[in-house]
Amino acid sequence: GGTASASTTVSINTPVGSLIPQQQLHVVSVDSQDTVGGNYAATNALDGNPATFWHSEWYQRTAPLPHTLVLDLGSQYQVDGFRYLPRQDGQSEGTIAGYEFYVSPDGSTWGSAVAAGTLAANTSEKTVPFPAKTGRYVRLIALSEMNGYAYTSAAELNVFGTIQTLPPVTVTLSAAPATITAGQASTVTWAATNATACSGSGGLIAP
User: How would you class 127 by CB atoms within 10 Å of its CB: exposed for 0-12, middle for 13-18, buried for 19 or more?
Assistant: First the structure.
């Protein structure tokens, strides 16, 4: 005898790899960090303490956007997500809005962003999954800030990934001639699979 409407909120969790231990992450480069107005170094985003945070320069000068943080994961991973915790001191300045995230095998070849968009305008923790890409280095670029300021801040940054399993390396050796007598020399050659390089020196002399 009439119409009715209702609404609900549905949360969809996309599986991601395991958290890469923060202890093995290292800051390769950061375009701006304020260590004059306080302890706001980029390493604060990797210390496991949400009370400390990275903040771009603000005390003596305001560094313009975008702000970029590059991390070394410590090993090659199938990287498939990151987690961002904004500052948790009751302030929101620097909270990232627009962003791009990149993965690189060598820290110099980046290709296209594996994730890009705009984060929700609040200081809650955000998890961003994306299709896995193999790499050892990641780059977060903050394009804008939720309040329109030129700042960037982060209490914690975590990266998700699965360690890359390398195929086994096999080496086959052969000697020519295979049989020698005292004082003769034999040359050893080898063939390898799943190896990026082989090296050797010297020769074999029969005793």
Answer: middle
